[in-house]
Design a protein that fits this description.
By secondary structure, the chain is mainly alpha-helical. It is 63% helix and 0% strand.
């Protein structure tokens, strides 16, 4: 009986050791994957920062003004001025005709006391 108990305990300890061993390797693999993902995120953030800087460089007002001047023949672009915009009084809103109620309204129905 005692030998059976020792065998069951030894099997249980071996099973726990195997479980701990596999969990250790799963954890190490997950940590490596997290490290790789963090490197990818850092590279993507750096790429986004470079693209934002390039976008800001390409959208400089003096550069855009020069491009407009170069392509005036094709695009016919002119600088915006306040005189290009109208007032709200210049908008023609449609008029709505509201019919007046001149006839009396009769209500029919039974009332319950």
């Amino acid at each position: 009986m005692r030998n059976l108990f020792f065998i069951v305990c030894a099997t249980f300890v071996i099973g726990l050791a195997y479980w701990a061993y596999t969990e250790n390797y799963k954890t190490q693999a997950a940590l490596k994957q997290v490290h790789v993902l963090q490197k990818q995120i850092a590279l993507e953030k750096e790429t986004i920062a470079v693209l934002k800087a390039e976008w800001a460089y390409l959208n400089r007002p003096d550069r855009l003004r020069d491009l407009v001047d170069l392509n005036f023949e094709d695009l016919k672009l002119i600088p915006l001025a306040p005189s290009h915009f109208g007032d709200s009084e210049m908008v023609g809103y449609p008029t709505t005709i509201i019919d007046s109620v001149t006839d009396a309204v009769t209500i029919s129905g039974e009332s319950q006391p």
